[in-house]
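Sanity check

After download, print the first record. It should look like this:
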Amino acid sequence: MPIPKELALSAEQLDELMTTSWNMRVATIGPGTRINVTPLWFGWAGGKIYFYCRGQKVVNLRRNVDCTVLVDRNERFPELQGAMFQGAARVLETPDDEVADPDMETVRWQMGTKYAGGHGEAAERKRNEASARGRHWRWVVMTPAKTVTWDNFKIKR
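Expected structure tokens:
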């Protein structure tokens, strides 16, 4: 049963969730039909999700671009808020691919500042300098084809 539209996050609430939440989970299709779910840090710009990663996620996305991303917060049902994105991911294979992406620079500054120090303390504005390296470390851009959001605070009690 679909989530009622009146429980959806507004565009402003979605942007706030995506720019202030620290962790997302990305589900990719591994070898065969195995699903690989991994928590990662992420950025949000231009309606797309960006993450820098290595290993099985990159291998999986090179093989099959389909993935699902979940960002949510709070523990108790009446307080749950979140967004699920289904779509296709593109692995940025080279530094030139990174430069060509129109939102990459925004994401570099957003993530560099959000995760500076890695412990949640207030940070100075900082740029994430990560770039394609080795066989597996890559930026990935996920473009949602379908988005479902929820804000359980809006449930009438």
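If your output differs, re-run the checksum step. Summary of this record's structure: The radius of gyration is 16 Å.
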